[in-house]
Structures are given as structure tokens and as C-alpha cells.
Amino acid sequence: MSLIVGIIVGAIAGILAQKIMKGDAPYGIIGDIVLGVIGGAVGSYLLDLLGLSLGVSGIVGSLIVSVIGAVVFIYVLRILF
């Protein structure tokens, strides 16, 4: 995946994760991108750890995994802080 597509997917994933978790702290577009990229890493790790596969590849698969990971990441941050 190219860098530009990764940034766009990260931004969309970060925005969607905030909407799902009903976040009240606006991170801005940079924060959403960072959240989405971290979410992609967390989501990939968790799905590999659990031995799960979505059966969807490409941009759609990356977006789904990133949103799942970003939601988990937000949840853990809320528990810790």
C-alpha cells in the first residue's frame, strides 16, 4: 500500500474509531491519522494473535482492521488514563 493511501486509510479509521467510541477529545486530522496507523498495527497484531482472518483484503480489509485496532487502542487508553 502506498504511503498516501496508508495516510488516508489511517485518517478514516481514526475518525470512525472516534465516532464508534464517542470520543469527546478532538485529536485533529494528524491525531486521527496517528490513531488509525496505531490502530492498524494493534488490529493486525490482535487478529494474528487470535488466528483470525477477515477474508477481505486490500484497502477495505486494511480499513476494517485499522478501525478494530483503533477502537481497542482508545478503549485501553481510557482504562489507563
What can you see in these coordinates?
The protein has 81 residues and is mainly α. It has one domain. The protein is built from three helices and no strands. The chain has helices at residues 3-20, 28-50, 58-80. It is globular, with a radius of gyration of 12 Å.
What keyword list fits this structure?
81 residues; 79% helix; 3 helices; mainly alpha
Please give the structural blueprint:
Blueprint: H1 3-20, H2 28-50, H3 58-80
Radius of gyration: 12 Å
Q: Roughly how many Å apart are the termini? A: 33 Å
The secondary-structure element order is HHH
* Secondary structure tally: strands: 0
The general outline is: globular
Poorly predicted runs: none
Helix coverage percent? over 70%
How would a textbook summarize the main sheet? none
Question: What integer is the average pLDDT?
Answer: 88
Query: Strand percentage, roughly?
Result: under 5%
Number of domains: 1
Number of helices: 3
Structural class: mainly alpha
Summarize it:
This protein has 3 helices and no strands.
